[in-house]
Design a protein that fits this description.
Blueprint: H1 2-9, H2 13-26, E1 31-37, E2 43-48, H3 58-61, H4 85-94, E3 97-103, E4 110-116, E5 119-126, E6 131-137, H5 144-149, H6 153-170, E7 175-180, E8 183-187, H7 194-207, E9 210-217, E10 220-227, E11 239-243, E12 246-248, H8 251-261, E13 273-278, E14 284-285, E15 296-297, H9 300-316, H10 340-350, E16 364-369, E17 373-378, E18 381-386, H11 387-398, E19 409-419, H12 422-430, H13 432-438, E20 441-444, E21 449-456, H14 465-477, H15 483-498, H16 505-516, E22 531-535, H17 536-542
Amino acid sequence: MGKIAAGEVVEGPASVVKELVENSIDAGARRVQVTIVDGGRESITVMDDGCGIEPDDVLMAFQRHATSKIRDAADLQQVTTLGFRGEALPVVAAVSRVTMLTRPSTTAAGTEIRLEGGRVLATGRVGCAPGTVVTVADLFFNVPPRRKSLRSSRAEAARTAEVMSALMLARPDIAFRLRSADRELLASPGTGRRLDALVALVGLGDAARMLEVEWSREEISVVGFVGEPGLHGGTRSGLFTVVNGRPVRDRVVAAAVEDVYRTLLPAGRHPVGVLWLELPRICIDVNVHPAKLTVAHRDPQLVRQAVTAAVVDALGRAPIARRLWSIPARPPESQSPPTPVQQEIWQVREQPAETAPLNLADFRVVGQVHRSYLVLEGPQGVYLVDQHAAHERVTYERLAPKSDPGAGTQLLLVPLVLELKPKERARWEELAVLLEQAGFVAEPFGGNAVLVRGVPAAVSDVAGESWLRAALEKLGEEERADDEGLRRALAACRASVKARTELGREEMEALWRDLAACRHPYACAHGRPTLLKVGLDELERRFGRT
């Protein structure tokens, strides 16, 4: 029975580490060190300076369903700890060889207990430091199929590092250390400052390219850091979520952040950062997963709206020339002095680099290259603007929903009769509400024909019959048939018409002004970059002038 139950919580070394470290956290530890050998397949040791276990309770801690973390059934609805000791220790012991040394600070000696396959081999009094040390050896030694299914040493170590990273961010007040044999994989200082924990995990360079999130309404708060568009990951694992101090995989939060970044990142790339959410405990259920890897929200829509508002607010507060490319600015001298980590990050930010502040008024349009790129002179070098991407970004933002649905409509002098194929007509009817909200004015005109009387003003210069057909086809390629997908399809189609077009001086300057006025000028609606810089230092190096 114990071996079967182990499958609910113990999937591999990383899950053992998670359960044991969460016990250390719940025990009030301020320092936790984890050491793994052979990726944890040979052994896992978790050492903490927590409260320890009283001698009379040590045997009880390895009994199924025993816990010191709840008093009655009501506690299950408002869990404040990371887990229940009875969930982890018995099932881990059932499939491994476990040794525990533990001592409360109030006792002169500690207790040692050794188990194998769930059977107690020995117990006794020993001398040891206050706290608890748990060593788990030969994981799944008595369950050969599970032992054989363990991944390589490197893969198991990477998974353990991911688990420890989430715990480091969840509890910046605890000094964590993860070692693999004689090599240190991770370490956090335990200062209590979220920024220090972030820097310990991602380094100064990436931390300097993140923007602070700070938002609260009534009983909900969302704080943290999110990356600028040039800082992204190939998977969704780069976005960490902490809900009420618990690191979890939160689909509601992740979906909200992905939606905000959808038009800012290249296809196949994902936002990075860490968000800490504080919600009333009654609003979440932490008992929906045996290992408490996820939570259930009583009101998912409310949480999604809060996260969206928080991230949008953070992106909107970035200076226009460094949109999304900053962390909190250096405070006035009258405020408290910066921490060492803040000081180092500001030094990184203040170096002349790609993310240095720029005054857009200092730019001068020089010309056009291959009817595709604008060339600009700026205070720090030469800049190239992708004409297609710039048109797409400008059009996308001009198509943003207005409070007055008709405000963005341009009525046609001569209405356009659009003869659609059955599939196209069905698509048009499916999107009728969205098309109207975007600024289209149209009505049935017999058979599969549609009479178009008005189009969105942002695309009125190109909205002919062939263009409308292309827009419908483009919309079919979008992941979602919603307002955002429609705006992206319309913007991409208009940009395609404007691409490879020779522009006069006034047209080039107008395009640059329009791009500079965008909320997010550095990427097109599909996440491709609009602007590329070649710095003066690079030019001088290339020409041998350094």
